[in-house]
Each structure stands twice: as C-alpha cells, then as structure tokens.
Amino acid sequence: MAVAAPDLRNLTDEQIWDRLHAGMVDSPLHRQCIVMLEMRNAEKQSRSASALVAATDNLVKATQDLASFTGRLAWATWTLAGITVFLVAVAALQAYAMFKWHP
Q1: What mean pLDDT, rounded, does the chain reach?
Q2: In 1-103, which ranges are E strands?
Q3: Would 3 be classed as within a structural domain?
Q4: pLDDT tens digits for 27-39?
Q5: What gap in Å lies between CA 86 and CA 94, rounded to an integer?
Q6: Is residue 2 situated within a structural domain?
Q7: Domain range enclosing 82
Q8: How many structural domains comprise the chain?
Q9: Average pLDDT, stretch 40-48?
Q10: Which entry of 25, 53, 95, 102 is 20 to 30 Å from 37 by CA?
Q11: Torsion region of 69: left, alpha or beta (phi above 0 gives left; psi -120 to 50 gives alpha)
C-alpha cells in the first residue's frame, strides 16, 4: 500500500521541524521531513561555500596586490641604501681631501 507523502517544499524549516516532531519515528512523514531538512541544509552549505569562494578570490587578489607593492617597496629600499652608501663614500672622500690638502 503506497502512502502519498505531503509536499513539504513550500513549508518553512520551522514548519517542517514541527511536522517532524509531530509524526511517528520512521514513518513516511518523518523520513520525508528528515530528507527535506538535509536537502535544505545541503543547499545552505552550497550557497555558503560559493560565497566563501568569492571572498577567497577577493583575498587572493588583495594579497597579490600587496605582494607587488611590497616588491616595489623592497626595490626602493635597496635603491635608497645604495644611494646612502654612495653619499657616505663621497663624504668620506671629501673629508679625506679636506684634511690631506688643507693643513
């Protein structure tokens, strides 16, 4: 004997939970409520995973931009260090020349 199962697609989660608790354990209604709640949970997890993937893609782009900026900053720092070494050498030569040729 086949039992017609009620259509639970248009019910809210709370209404399905109420029907789940009102029915007999392992009855067709009970099994259908469990399946419907599991499917809705899977849909919610799928939407959350999609949102997480989109957020992760944005974080990857931001991290790549930060890495690029950091690389440019490192080159600027090395350039400034090279200029500083050059200027210290010029100042040392000037001091040497001043003390050597001017008594």
Answers
A1: 90
A2: none
A3: no
A4: 888 888 888 999 9
A5: 12
A6: no
A7: 13-101
A8: 1
A9: 95
A10: 53
A11: alpha
